[in-house]
Amino acid sequence: MRRYRESFGRGVILWAFCALWAPPLLAHNFWIEPTTFTPAPGQRVAVRLRVGAELQGDPVPRDPNLIKRFVAAGPSGEAPVPGVPNTEPAGFEAFAAPGLYTIVYDSGRSPVELDAAKFETYLKEEGLEAVAAARARQGKSAASAKEVFSRCAKALIAVGGPGSGHDRVFGQRIELVAEKNPYTLAGGGELPVRLLYQGKPLAGALVMALQRGRPDKVTARSDAKGRVTLKLDRPGFWLIKAVHMIPAPADAGADWESLWASLTFALPSR
Description:
Elements: H1 2-21, E1 29-34, E2 44-52, E3 58-60, E4 67-74, E5 77-80, E6 91-94, E7 99-107, E8 110-114, H2 116-125, H3 129-137, E9 145-159, E10 174-178, E11 189-197, E12 200-201, E13 206-210, E14 218-221, E15 227-232, E16 236-247, E17 256-267
Parallel strand pairs: 9-17
Antiparallel strand pairs: 1-2, 2-3, 2-6, 4-5, 4-7, 7-9, 8-9, 10-11, 11-12, 11-15, 13-14, 13-16, 16-17
């Protein structure tokens, strides 16, 4: 009986996580949020995945069937982020040496279907006017849309101080790359960021920077080289995001495929 209760309890917890995971599939943000972005060397850090509107995120348990890559990379190389399947936090990490580290997460595809009004609103909010225009040309603006989406998330971790390291390209399908170490921007400043799609600059994409509790967003469109400069005016936790949408491949069983990039870090105070 005790084993049954323990098993039942774990099942209820997992069901609760799945329930939390299901509603935000409708075009909401996904990001990595560790317990601290500035740990001391050797400090154990819980690596949490979050999904939700703005930065009001729900926890996402570790799903081995969805994870394609989940690694921590730093001065001494790259290694998988360890964790227990179907639990939250999704992983744990301890960084032995000082420096700038990057946690990289890539997911497989997930399907979703939205009615016409929700899909058109989503396209507008994410700066995907070209997709809305394509649907209009096809006479499908009033039609629901089947979509598959995947996540490409990164988090920058400064271990033992700001360090002299920098973000780099990890070959994600869509990827945001900080071209300056954000931990050198004490109190805020301008952060140059590059957006890549399949390793090449993605021009004309809407890049946004968000802070929790602030309705205003810092936004810019990427130039021909995929670059934007974001003026981050306050210290604290920041999420930078971008979405790219393409016609879905024939084997996807959908109309469109979206790729979501995110980059998180915490600007230090002065």
